[in-house]
Amino acid sequence: MEYSILIVPGLGDSTTGHWQDNWLHHFPNAKKVVQNNWNQPQLKDWLSNLDATIKSIETSIIIVAHSLAVSLVAHWSQQNDSSKIAGALLVAPADVESATHTPEETWNFAPIPLDKLKYPSIVITSSNDPYISAERAEFLAQKWGSLFYNVGPKGHLNLDSQLGLWEEGQEILQTLLQLITENKN
Question: For 93-112, how does the pLDDT look when each residue is reduced to its tens digit (9 = 90+)?
């Protein structure tokens, strides 16, 4: 089956050198959600742009969300028909319900929806992510019905983590593709 990979960046965008930007250029079937305001995110506006991008894609979609975008995808999935979504890789969720973990401009994305997702998904966190505790990330994975990976002490899995093409993430993406295949049978 043909899939489009939908890159969904979080606060501040995933710019040059970020693994999400590298994946955007590495995978020929990748597209990216573009937000109007990367630094003062408003949930309603971001949901609208995500929805419009999903509707513009004709194939089944694998979402690859990072940080704040993980909460965005959870909100979107609760409010919309997710039948076009084959699966989701939910990387380094930001705990928008925690004032100690996230900046104030992200708090309008709280509360994080805890409904089970209607498609296969994997949550990936690192053991020293400043934006969420590993325990909280695992809790979210359990609620969403996602597989959970803790990839060790690698920070927020962002530009500062210097992951390049993030081969480990690509291997986990292959696991997601296997889940999708098993889910269809």
Answer: 999 999 999 999 999 999 99
